[in-house]
Amino acid sequence: MERxxxxxxxxxxxxxxxxxxxxxxxxxxxxxxxxxxxxxGEPYEDADGTRYLPMxxxxxxxxxGSKEFMSTAHERALRRGxxxxxxxxxxxxxxxxxxxxxxxxxxxxxxxxxxxxAVYGPKNAVDKVLKGATMHP
Length: 137
Hints:
Layout: E1 6-13, H1 18-35, E2 44-45, E3 51-52, E4 60-65, H2 67-80, E5 83-88, H3 97-105, E6 114-122, H4 123-129, E7 134-135
Parallel strand pairs: 1-4
Antiparallel strand pairs: 1-6, 2-3, 4-7, 5-6
Helix pairs in contact: 2-4
């Protein structure tokens, strides 16, 4: 089994509906894949030669926490300089990337109503950002 020096992790607010959890996870991890091509593997191919899109080379761990913990983890990520993507409650009401970015830009960092963050970085640093979170069931 390959050991990775980095970690990809998603933290979801614990009061989200199932569809929201899935949607937020997909959006958040796309930011990591889009900015760190080294975490994406080669395309897949089945025995018949049908090709499929590549996926992450390493596991994505999913955690959950309270609304208060979301803010704590976000502050930790900022303080440690850990790259991360954010998804706010406001984004459930938008329908495109431009409106999503405008909704985030309209709110000060400390006032973001976070429902999810995805972090990518050295294992130890990511672990410190998420210390206290529980694994998603």
